[in-house]
């Protein structure tokens, strides 16, 4: 419990000049469980991915077991004793546990019995109660993690990284998992685990480090932390005050009519009996950490995702039950969902701005065969380009050539051209240049002023506080807290979002 | 898509686009070279009789390729075209021989083709079967159904007393074969549909990014059905012209390499298999080149097997070049789609 096994010195990782984390000094001791906490985008995952060989550092040093290292790949990291266990496990579901354990270590000829015996020995040594002949597809999430860990041990791993290991586990499975970490510790291995669950971290970790906006703000023995101290360390920020500074004095707009209501909506494990309302004439902010199910709830409302047919709960639009099986039906009812991932399902990248915007009009039209008037396309596009201040060098530029902010404005225009009554913005300023952020916020405010019901999903607390009139907090597929903007603070929201 | 670009005349000078243009340029040059070489080396190539045969056979290939282009632009593929073509046309002829009026029989044939297209489209849109497998299997089913229930003879002659029908394949308008006129006409129609109608725009949108198309609220599923139905109908038209010029339709075409010739035309012309770009111009270019190649090889009396080898190699090269020039976006590609 004394010697350092991993050390980051002034480590910085840039993605296209944007720092994921900077000047981080982090140490991991032999035989300790180290919890890494922070908001979405604070840099925790990136930090561990550097250690696991997925990215190189931009500057600074990474020292593993006393030697300066830079891993070229996860396989390289594993060869040096670092194993990362991902949320979705990397096992082959159609093979048995034993076969998975010895994957990539097979002899030219394999005797199944020999492998099974070796696997059994390995699992017993770790006291994992998993049948080596069972198919991986028949195992629960915790057992899969056991297999994954056993495989890492099999590869002589000494440093284990878990990224949100407990997010998909049931309470019982969680206890198994914690026992498992204890066992790894007892064997002298080191564990880094990333979590959003503060109680877990306080309970099982020896030390806790907290990252905020890419900087390591606190590292200490977990016994020296309290829940309040962690929350404060996670949210207390001074960055971007000028952009979000005016929040404290703002008064929310009063709610108009109830436009959208979700009642006990469920979908798989992502959304579990969520209930919420959205009113016209105001902005409803939705906050939640990764895996809280915010996006899924709204995607169900917009018909992008289909919910469980029998137990899916009810979605009401203006008081009437609706069930949208495809986005088109929701669009025709005046719902616009503006995606969090433009490239994936927001833009037609090699088409022009005008065409992209006009597809919003086409989508809401009824007659698919009718002729398109090019002058109308250009006229409407020119109007939206001016209204949303979309900046481009050439009017004929393809959307892929625009900056992130302008791409986002094109996606917004494509939806607003349909004059929707309910607009859902999913992470509206993700990957958007700083200048465009306030412009997009203005667009959102004007929409609400004009009487539309607006939902903004964001992982960035200052953004939620800056633009919402009402704040909903999601956790584990439910809405757990609702507050008016006047009473909302970063601490309160974060307190509700973590568990 | 470049509808707006055509208006302003400004073209984005991206590398990929330059390559695309040069791909078109290369194919065009190859076509010219092949034409000149054959003209010089093969005395019979430039004879009016041969040129007539050339443009006629090429027109039918071109019409089929127009249909194929429609689904390929929307990120689909239809390898059941030949099956639809031979079965619907043969059936129309059989019905006529059984005593129905010829015109009615033709309508029934058209309905069958449409129905087949709708069925395939439904399978792809609602059953979410990858297009290549859906059409491959559906092609066999359609052909099998035709041979089992509709007709048993491979060769179906054009019914007697249908003089006007023969004119389609054999007549001339102002000295131009009707076949060529039909191809030209269809080219114009398809081009207008693609560039100026909602249907066409949505087709490009679905090829460009199917996820965006869906989330934006475009009717992607009905569109898929409509696309395959249109393609089937175009295949039927091509089949009628083919039957008219040969005075019969041979069901064995289903077992020939014709479908690969069509794909060859589409890919070689520059319509990427990952959808979203290319237009009628690419179809014409591909048609001309493939037509010259096939005709030249036939005149040279090259063995059929070797012809297939040449075609196969060219198709393979074209697909490789296509996937290099138009790499499929990793983010939007899904396992199993084509």
UniProtKB/TrEMBL annotation, chain A:
SUPFAM superfamilies: P-loop containing nucleoside triphosphate hydrolases. Keywords: ATP-binding, Nucleotide-binding, Repeat, Sugar transport, Transport. Pfam families: ABC_tran (PF00005). The keyword Repeat applies. Belongs to the ABC transporter superfamily. Residues 6-238, 243-498 form the ABC transporter domain. The keyword Acyltransferase does not apply. This is Sugar ABC transporter ATP-binding protein. InterPro entries: AAA+_ATPase, ABC_carbohydrate_import_ATPase, ABC_transporter-like_ATP-bd, ABC_transporter-like_CS, P-loop_NTPase. GO terms for molecular function: ATP binding.
From TrEMBL, chain B:
Pfam families: BPD_transp_2. It is a multi-pass membrane protein. It is found in: Cell membrane. Keywords: Cell inner membrane, Cell membrane, Membrane, Transmembrane, Transmembrane helix, Transport. CDD domains: TM_PBP1_transp_AraH_like. PANTHER family: ABC TRANSPORTER PERMEASE PROTEIN YPHD-RELATED, ABC TRANSPORTER PERMEASE PROTEIN YPHD-RELATED-RELATED. This is ABC transporter permease. It comes from Mesorhizobium liriopis.
């Amino acid at each position: 419990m004394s010697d350092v096994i991993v050390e980051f010195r002034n480590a910085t990782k840039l993605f296209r000049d944007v720092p994921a984390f900077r000047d981080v000094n982090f140490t991991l001791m032999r035989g300790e469980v180290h919890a890494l906490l922070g908001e979405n985008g604070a840099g925790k995952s990136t930090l561990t991915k550097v250690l696991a060989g997925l990215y190189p550092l931009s500057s600074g040093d990474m020292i593993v077991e006393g030697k300066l290292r830079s891993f070229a790949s996860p396989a390289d990291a594993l060869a040096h004793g670092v194993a990362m266990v991902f949320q979705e496990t990397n096992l082959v579901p159609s093979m048995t546990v034993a076969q998975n354990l010895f994957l990539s270590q097979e002899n030219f000829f394999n005797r199944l019995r020999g492998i099974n015996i070796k696997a059994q020995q390995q699992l017993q040594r770790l006291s994992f109660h998993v049948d080596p002949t069972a198919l991986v597809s028949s195992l629960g999430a915790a057992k899969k993690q056991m297999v994954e860990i056993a495989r890492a041990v099999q590869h002589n791993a000494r440093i284990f990284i878990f990224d949100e290991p407990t997010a998909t586990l049931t309470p019982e499975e969680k206890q198994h998992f914690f026992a498992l970490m204890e066992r790894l510790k007892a064997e002298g291995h080191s564990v880094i685990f990333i979590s959003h669950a503060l109680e877990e971290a306080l309970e099982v970790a020896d030390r806790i480090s907290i990252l905020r906006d890419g900087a390591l703000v606190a590292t200490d023995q977990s016994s020296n932390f309290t829940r309040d101290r962690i929350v404060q360390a996670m949210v207390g920020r001074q960055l971007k005050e000028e952009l979000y500074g005016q929040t404290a004095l703002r008064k929310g707009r009063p709610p108009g009519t109830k436009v959208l209501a979700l009642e006990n909506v469920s979908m798989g494990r992502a959304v579990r009996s969520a209930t919420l309302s959205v009113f016209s004439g105001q902005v409803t902010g939705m906050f939640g950490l990764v895996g809280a199910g915010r996006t899924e709830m709204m995607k169900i409302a917009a018909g992008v995702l289909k919910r469980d047919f029998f137990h899916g709960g009810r979605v009401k639009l203006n008081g009437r039950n609706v069930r949208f099986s495809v986005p088109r039906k929701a669009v025709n009812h005046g719902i616009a969902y503006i995606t969090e991932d433009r490239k994936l399902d927001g833009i037609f990248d090699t088409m022009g701005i005008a065409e992209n915007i006009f597809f919003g009009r086409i989508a809401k039209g009824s007659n698919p065969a009718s002729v398109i008037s090019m002058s109308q396309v250009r006229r409407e596009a020119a109007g939206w380009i001016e209204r949303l201040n979309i900046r481009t060098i050439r009017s004929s530029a393809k959307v892929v050539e625009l900056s992130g902010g302008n791409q986002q404005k094109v996606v917004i225009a494509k939806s607003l051209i349909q004059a929707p009554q309910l607009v859902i913005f999913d992470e509206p300023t993700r990957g958007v240049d700083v200048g465009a952020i306030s412009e997009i916020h203005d667009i959102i405010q004007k929409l609400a002023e004009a009487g539309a019901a607006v939902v903004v999903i964001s992982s960035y607390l200052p953004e939620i506080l800056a633009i919402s009139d009402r704040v909903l907090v999601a956790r584990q597929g439910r809405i757990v807290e609702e507050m008016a903007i006047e009473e909302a603070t970063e601490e309160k929201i974060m307190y509700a979002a973590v568990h | 898509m470049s509808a707006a670009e055509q208006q302003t005349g400004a073209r984005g000078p991206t590398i990929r686009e330059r390559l695309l243009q040069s791909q078109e340029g290369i194919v065009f040059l190859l076509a010219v070279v092949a034409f000149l070489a054959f003209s010089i080396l093969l005395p019979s190539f430039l004879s009016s009789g041969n040129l007539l045969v050339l443009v006629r056979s090429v027109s039918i290939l071109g019409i089929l390729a127009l249909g194929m282009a429609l689904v390929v632009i929307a990120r689909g593929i239809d390898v059941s075209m030949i099956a639809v073509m031979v079965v619907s046309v043969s059936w129309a002829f059989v019905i006529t021989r059984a005593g129905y009026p010829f015109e009615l029989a033709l309508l029934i044939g058209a309905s069958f083709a449409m129905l087949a297209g709708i069925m395939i489209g439904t399978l792809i849109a609602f059953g979410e079967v990858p297009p290549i497998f859906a059409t491959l299997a559906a092609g066999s089913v359609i052909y099998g159904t035709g041979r089992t229930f509709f007709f048993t003879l491979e060769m179906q002659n054009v019914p007697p007393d249908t003089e006007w029908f023969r004119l389609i394949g054999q007549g001339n308008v102002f000295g131009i074969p009707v076949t060529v006129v039909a191809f030209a006409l269809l080219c114009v129609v398809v081009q207008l549909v693609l560039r100026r109608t909602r249907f066409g725009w949505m087709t490009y949108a679905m090829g460009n990014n199917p996820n965006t198309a869906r989330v934006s609220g475009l009717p992607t599923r009905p569109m898929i059905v409509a696309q395959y139905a249109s393609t089937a109908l175009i295949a039927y038209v091509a089949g009628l012209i083919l039957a008219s010029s040969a005075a019969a339709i041979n069901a064995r075409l289903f077992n020939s390499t014709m479908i690969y010739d069509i794909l060859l035309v589409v890919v070689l012309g520059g319509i990427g298999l990952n959808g979203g770009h290319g237009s009628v111009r690419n179809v014409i270019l591909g048609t001309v080149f493939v037509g010259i190649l096939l005709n030249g090889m036939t005149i040279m009396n090259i063995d059929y097997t070797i012809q297939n080898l040449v075609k196969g190699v060219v198709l393979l090269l074209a697909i490789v070049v296509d996937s290099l020039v138009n790499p499929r976006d990793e983010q939007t590609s899904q396992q199993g789609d084509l």
